Structures are given as structure tokens and as C-alpha cells.
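Hi Y.,

Following your request, here is the sequence exactly as I used it, all 358 residues.
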Amino acid sequence: MSTIPRPNVATWPALVIALVAIVATAPHLGAFTSQVVGLTARVVDKPLIRKDVLRAPDITQEEVDAITASSTGVTGCLQADADPPIEVPTHTCVWWVLRITVNNLTGSPMAELMVVDRFGAELDGHPLSDVPVEVFVISHSRGHSGRDHFETQVRITWCVTQTTVVAFGECSGPDTPLQPGESAFLDVLVFTKLNPSGKQEYTSAGTYEMNSGAVAKWRDGDGTQRSASTPPIMVEASDSDADGDGFAAASDCNDADPGVHPTAAEIPGNGRDDDCNPGTLDEVTPTPAATETATPTATAEPPVEDEPTAAPTEDTATLSPTLAPTDTPTSTASSTPTETATPTPTLTATATATPEGG
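Below is the corresponding structure, written out as C-alpha cells. Let me know if you'd prefer a different format.
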């Protein structure tokens, strides 16, 4: 018959101490776990390389027109939707500003760092940042025979830490590595262009790739070649036009009203956004009412009733400076504009001006 071994009482104090230590450190373990989760969330929110469509880019429409005019001869392009899914109208020149950002989260310097990117054949690009970057336009054939016509594709090379772009995907010159915690960014204006037939892209409805994704390449602290990339940005082109005003639903802020579209004139006070531009105010600015200033007028005293007014004769109608004043003139010239001479039955001349010294 076997017996259950009795626990060694001498070991109980050690067990109690261990349990107390575990209970005491439990809150700290929870805090440590939450810190790790928080750190992971921040890393996900700020990837090593990212590309964003700016909702409020620091560029004016006049600056956009100058760039598109020199590239394609087209002006008046519309700022396209920035929120996914990105929708654009067909046969309409639209533009975006893309920002490519590199964040050094590796913990070691990023040497010989550069970024390359490729855009769809329907788009043109123009760098806006003052950094070592070059735009390369690559021509390629399109069509079953390869001789139908040629299209061009815009590619960029951004030398983040070096000074000179040698060729697509190749940099040279002195290198200033991007240190841990540092960031760098590049802004690029992207806009639809004319196709080889002279028609404005996008020429048909469908899903298009704005770009294939930016790729960063660098060497880490021990010289190992590293790389990271962004996902592509997709664009949905639509040619639906329910109100028949010539603007697809993607660019028409009210596709049920033919009087509302991007080129319509804004009518103040009608309660709607006629030109699809929130920056154009619809409110009518009230005009301040004109303030009338009362002009005082002299009121003539009515003639005394039952007293006839003598008609002037030639002697009383004409006054000359040599007219001798009477001892008691009826009235003299005064600066008070309201004084009125009182007519009398006698034919005494009423002077309106008295010679000086009289």
C-alpha cells in the first residue's frame, strides 16, 4: 500500500515568497504588455516609406496651370478626389499632389538612400520639392503590332541622401545618411495628359493604376542592401452623366442638376453650390444702406394778410453802389440766411447788399 508523500514544511516560506512576488509584479507586467502594444501601433501608423494624396496641397491653381500648359498645353485642370476610392471623370484633365515620405525607423543610419517610382501611361508628373530628383520619360510601343503608336511613361528617381541623379535608379556624389528618427519627403504634381491621338485621358471608364508603388533602397549600418515599398494607388474613371451637362458624376457635385457643374457660374444667394467649388461663397453680402443727410432749407415768411405787395418799378428794381442809404434802412445784408425783408406799402427799396462804409 502506497502512501501520499507529505509536503516538506520547510519549503513553504519560499513558496509563499514566490507567490507574493508574482502578485506584486502582475500590474507591471500588464503595463509592459500595454506599452508593447502601443509601440506596435505607432510603428504601423508610421511606416518606413509611405505615399499619400494630399487633400490640401500647398499649390495654387495658377501654378498648376503653368505646369500643365508647359507639359501638355492644357489649363484649367480640376483637383481630383483625394479620398479612396479615388474617382475621376473621363475625358477631363485632373490633378493630384502626392507626397512620398521616408522615415528612418531602422535604428541605424540609412546610407545611399534613394526612391524610385513609376506612374501610369495616362499621367504626367512634375516634382515640387527642391531636392535631388529627376523625371525620366520612357517611350514604349502600344498595340498588337508594336508599331501602332507610342506612349510615354513617367518615372522618377529621388536621391534622398546623395547629391546627383546619374540615371533612373542610380545616384552618386557625397552621401549624408538619414539618421535614426529622421524623415524626408518629396511632393510630386501628377496630372492626366493627352494620349497620342490628342484625346484627354482617361479616355474610357475603368480601374487604372496611378502608380506601381514607390520603392526605397538603401544600405544599413553593416552595408547590407535593404528595400521597402508602398502599395499602388488605384483610380476609378467614370463616364456616367445622369444630368447630361457634359460632366461625369465623379466631377459633378450634383449629377441630378444640369445647372450645377465645375464650369457653371456661381449665383449668390440661391442656396446651392453652382460651380462645385466650396470656396466660392453663396451668401449675398449685404450692402449697407445709404445714410441720408438732411439739408436745411430756408422757409420764407408768408406776406401779411390784407397788405398789398407793391410791384417794383424801374427805380426799385435796379440798385447801384452809389445809392445813398436811408437813415433807417428796412434791412441790411447779414450773414444770417434766414432773415427776410418785410414788404411795406411804401415804395422804399429793399437792399440786399449794403456798400461798405454806408
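The first strand starts at residue 49 and ends at 53.

Thanks again,
Q.
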